[in-house]
UniProtKB/TrEMBL annotation:
<protein>
    <submittedName>
        <fullName>NADH-quinone oxidoreductase subunit H</fullName>
    </submittedName>
</protein>
<feature type="transmembrane region" description="Helical">
    <location>
        <begin position="106"/>
        <end position="128"/>
    </location>
</feature>
<feature type="transmembrane region" description="Helical">
    <location>
        <begin position="185"/>
        <end position="206"/>
    </location>
</feature>
<feature type="transmembrane region" description="Helical">
    <location>
        <begin position="263"/>
        <end position="281"/>
    </location>
</feature>
<feature type="transmembrane region" description="Helical">
    <location>
        <begin position="78"/>
        <end position="100"/>
    </location>
</feature>
<dbReference type="GO" id="GO:0005886">
    <property type="term" value="C:plasma membrane"/>
</dbReference>
<keyword id="KW-0472">Membrane</keyword>
<feature type="transmembrane region" description="Helical">
    <location>
        <begin position="6"/>
        <end position="28"/>
    </location>
</feature>
<dbReference type="InterPro" id="IPR001694">
    <property type="entry name" value="NADH_UbQ_OxRdtase_su1/FPO"/>
</dbReference>
<keyword id="KW-0812">Transmembrane</keyword>
<feature type="transmembrane region" description="Helical">
    <location>
        <begin position="140"/>
        <end position="159"/>
    </location>
</feature>
<feature type="transmembrane region" description="Helical">
    <location>
        <begin position="227"/>
        <end position="251"/>
    </location>
</feature>
<keyword id="KW-1133">Transmembrane helix</keyword>
<dbReference type="Pfam" id="PF00146">
    <property type="entry name" value="NADHdh"/>
</dbReference>
<dbReference type="InterPro" id="IPR052561">
    <property type="entry name" value="ComplexI_Subunit1"/>
</dbReference>
<feature type="transmembrane region" description="Helical">
    <location>
        <begin position="293"/>
        <end position="315"/>
    </location>
</feature>
């Protein structure tokens, strides 16, 4: 029991969450910014720019609006970062990490996924800024919209994996029967998950709660210094979580050779997924209105996810 607690603590603070997830998330964000810039025929910033931003913000002063709820204002980014770090420790890395012993249930992960969005809403409402309030309402609507296809996608994967609710068991099933990415029944759910990724990260069409031209960063408008750095760190870890989960759900292919081959292979799969679902999406799309985004998720990703769920249920 004590050993399990030690492993869980290491997982959340060092690897695969903690320091590892944060560094890789910041590096992936740097690659994403370069990829978007090149697709738009720009040079773009250096790949280490997100790390430089964190260091710079950590040296700045924290400014809190006089009318803000100071306690909630300070707690919000910490809540989001802690939620992302726990998610990073729960999601297995095929051939490298099996998840925290006794956990990894997909429904626990579904609940924890909402913490970063809740932290945005808490920070926006606590700031007393009208732009923060607008960002709060938009974040809440978009979260309700993308959680419907996400739940259906997770259920479809669980049913297709012989009613397994543990991510490690789902990976083991695919190791035996083949990745779901190549399963025609699960292909609609994979497309739905591809659309979920930019929505939960606020990229491309779904850059709505923080739209610079409309609500001037919305929930995080009043944040500065180390508190803003915490939000940036949360976003980086969250990026790695959604990429890791996508690989675990649909393409947990292993290489013979242990952790030293499977970890780089896993990061390569995450990189391809990010360039497809985030970078290309950001570079080639504008932004929807909040009502358009909500309707979009109810019509298309939800229909795709439910199609896979229905097909997986018929096959079982």
């Amino acid at each position: 029991m004590v050993t399990d607690y030690i492993h869980a603590t290491i997982a959340m603070l060092i690897f695969p969450g903690g320091i590892f997830a944060l560094i890789m998330g910041l590096l992936f964000k740097g690659v994403d910014r370069i990829a978007v810039a090149r697709l738009q025929r720009r040079i773009g910033p250096p790949v280490l720019q997100p790390i430089f931003d964190i260091i710079k913000l950590s040296t700045k002063e924290i400014l809190i609006p006089e009318s803000a709820n100071a306690i909630a204002f300070k707690i919000a980014p910490l809540l989001g970062l802690c939620g992302s770090l726990i998610c990073a420790a729960l999601v297995p890395i095929p051939g490298v990490w099996n998840g925290i012993p006794g956990t990894g249930d997909i429904f626990i992960l579904l609940y924890l996924f909402s913490l970063p969005a809740i932290s945005f809403m808490l920070g926006g409402s606590a700031s007393s800024s009208p732009f923060g309030a607008l960002g709060f309402s938009r974040e809440m609507v978009i979260m309700f919209a993308y959680e419907i296809p996400l739940l259906a996608t997770l259920l479809a994967v669980a049913v297709r994996a012989d009613w397994q609710l543990s991510l490690s068991s789902i990976i083991s099933y695919q190791t035996t029967h083949g990745p779901f990415l190549f399963d025609p029944v699960m292909l609609p759910a994979f497309v739905a998950y591809l659309l979920f990724i930019p929505a939960t990260l606020g990229a491309g069409l779904f850059d709505i709660p923080e739209a610079e031209e409309e609500v001037i960063e919305g929930p995080i408008l009043e944040y500065s210094g180390p508190l803003l750095a915490l939000f940036n760190m949360m976003s980086a870890v969250k990026l790695m979580v959604v990429l890791n989960l996508g690989v675990a759900l649909f393409f947990p292919l292993l290489l013979p050779g242990g952790i030293w081959l499977n970890l780089p292979f896993h990061l390569l799969k995450c990189l391809v997924l990010m360039l497809t679902a985030v970078s290309l999406f950001r570079a080639s799309t504008g932004r929807l209105r909040i009502d358009q985004a909500f309707t979009f998720f109810l019509k298309y990703p939800s229909s795709l996810a439910y199609a896979s769920l229905f097909g997986a249920y018929l096959l079982r």
